[in-house]
């Protein structure tokens, strides 16, 4: 069984990206367990001064990433960039230099935003950032969910359901690719 950690780049209580991530388990291949991470808003701003003795929140994030076989990161787009809170989390996870828990990690990238572009610019920036820290971005369709507010069917007292079948199919394809990358240890081979 593979364990996948899903990280939302939005900390908003009713985040579209977090809703999307809560749909992953229903789209995952058999044997894949998806857990949505909570707590990136608790991380202090990255500072090299704290690297020698990182705060507990940083250690918790690093441990969660380290223990996961793969990651799915979903980002909104703020001012044509990934949110600062997500960049901060990735900065902490990529350190110490050349020893971060993102090195060799297999990752699927998603973006969702109410605009027609669906956060595509942030999606591409996130892919670039992950390659810089030597993570392996799994191949497959680029999933950028435009007008995400219309793609989610809101349900009382539970996460919204991703109703668009084409989007569900693309995400499922990426999760299948992630499973193959985990089984083949592609990320570690790529990092080496």
Automatic annotation (TrEMBL):
Residues 3-149 form the NADPH-dependent FMN reductase-like domain. Gene3D superfamilies: 3.40.50.360. It holds the Pfam family FMN_red. GO terms for cellular component: cytosol. One of its GO terms (molecular function) is oxidoreductase activity. It comes from the Bacteria. This is NADPH-dependent FMN reductase-like domain-containing protein.
């Amino acid at each position: 069984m593979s364990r996948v950690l899903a990280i939302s780049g939005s900390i908003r209580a009713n985040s579209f990206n977090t809703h999307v991530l809560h749909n992953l388990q229903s789209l995952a291949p058999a044997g894949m367990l998806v857990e949505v991470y909570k707590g990136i808003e608790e991380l202090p701003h990255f500072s090299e001064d704290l690297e020698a003795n990182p705060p507990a929140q940083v250690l918790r994030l690093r441990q969660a990433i380290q223990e996961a076989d793969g990651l799915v990161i979903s980002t909104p787009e703020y001012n044509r960039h990934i949110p600062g809170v997500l960049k901060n989390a990735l900065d902490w996870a990529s350190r110490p230099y050349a020893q971060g828990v993102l090195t060799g990690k297999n990752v699927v990238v998603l973006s969702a935003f109410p605009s027609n572009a669906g956060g595509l610019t942030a999606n591409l920036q996130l892919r670039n950032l992950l390659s810089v820290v030597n993570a392996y971005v799994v191949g497959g369709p680029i999933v950028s969910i435009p007008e995400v507010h219309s793609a989610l069917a809101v349900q009382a007292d539970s996460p919204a359901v991703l109703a668009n079948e084409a989007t569900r199919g693309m995400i499922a394809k990426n999760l299948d690719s992630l499973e193959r990358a985990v089984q083949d240890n592609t990320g570690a081979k790529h990092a080496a």
